[in-house]
Amino acid sequence: MTKRPHSQQGFRSSLGVLRLADEKKYGKARVENACARALRHRAVSYKSVVVILQHRLEDADEKHADKGAVPEHENVRGAHYYHRLHARPRGRARTLPVGAGLRLPDSTVVFARV
Question: Can you tell me the distance from the alpha carbon of 24 to that of 30, in angstroms, rounded to the nearest whole number?
């Protein structure tokens, strides 16, 4: 409720979620699971909870279990490959003095500001 400009807006959203639990359409258990999922994904709004319920996503995290490690293969690059890419020194960025203009190919002049 504290993220809304007026506390009444957050209060009404909370009442809407509670009303979803009272409806026979979704049930208390599903709404509770949907709210838990919304909290895990930091999507804490009435609309997020309704979308989770409509698409039956409240139990989706449990259905997608960990698939394990990536199998060894000659075409699979590990962390050492990417670490090596980031270890290369990169070129220095060109800086312009304040007020100096840089002419682009389409004859536009860009001025540096600080």
Answer: 11
**pLDDT at residue 24 in the model:** 80
CB neighbours (10 Å) of residue 45? 14
What span, in angstroms and rounded, lies between the C-alpha atoms of 35 and 58?
8
pLDDT of residue 36: 92
Between CA 114 and CA 94 the distance in angstroms is: 15
Beta bridge partners of 110: 102
In angstroms, rounded to a whole number, what is the distance separating the alpha carbons of residues 23 and 20? 5
CA 13 to chain centre: 22
Q: Comparing C-alpha atoms, which of 37, 17, 15, 38 is closest to residue 28?
A: 17
Chain segment 8-53, per-residue pLDDT in tens: 777 888 899 999 988 788 999 999 999 999 998 888 899 999 999 9
Is residue 13 within 8 Å of 45, Cβ to Cβ?
yes
CA atoms within 13 A on the CB side of 44: 11
